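Quick one, probably user error.
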């Protein structure tokens, strides 16, 4: 069955929408869901912050190497950042997910994937850090 042949999406919730509610949905056995633990999200946020800080440090170090070797000016860096930002048509300070076409089967997929979800073929990104 192709995805177009599936019935329309039914937005009726099948389980509790309150994440603090530990009651199982009718589709899962009692006790199957671990209790909600807000500290889990706090730990994730701390790890994300550390990751962003390290990436910021690496970017600053790379920029200083480039600048100190007179390979680019700050104005050129800002111009290139804007050029990269505008690749998706919006100056929003981020690299957006792009639609890619699988070279093997022709299916559309997004640029965050490394291989096609239909045929498994590796997907080549146009730019190294493309999201």
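Nope, works fine. Designed sequence:
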């Amino acid at each position: 069955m192709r995805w177009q042949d599936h019935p329309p999406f039914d937005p009726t919730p099948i389980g509790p929408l309150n994440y603090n509610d530990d009651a199982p949905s009718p589709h899962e056995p009692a006790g199957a869901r671990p209790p909600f633990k807000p500290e889990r999200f706090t730990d994730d946020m701390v790890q994300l912050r550390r990751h962003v800080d390290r990436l910021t440090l690496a970017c600053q170090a790379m920029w200083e190497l480039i600048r100190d070797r007179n390979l680019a000016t700050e104005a050129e860096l800002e111009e290139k950042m804007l050029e990269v930002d505008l690749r998706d048509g919006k100056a929003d300070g981020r690299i957006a997910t792009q639609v890619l076409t699988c070279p093997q089967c022709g299916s559309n997929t997004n640029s965050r994937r490394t291989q096609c979800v239909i045929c498994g073929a590796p997907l080549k990104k146009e730019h190294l850090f493309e999201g």
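Helices lie at 38-68, 74-85.
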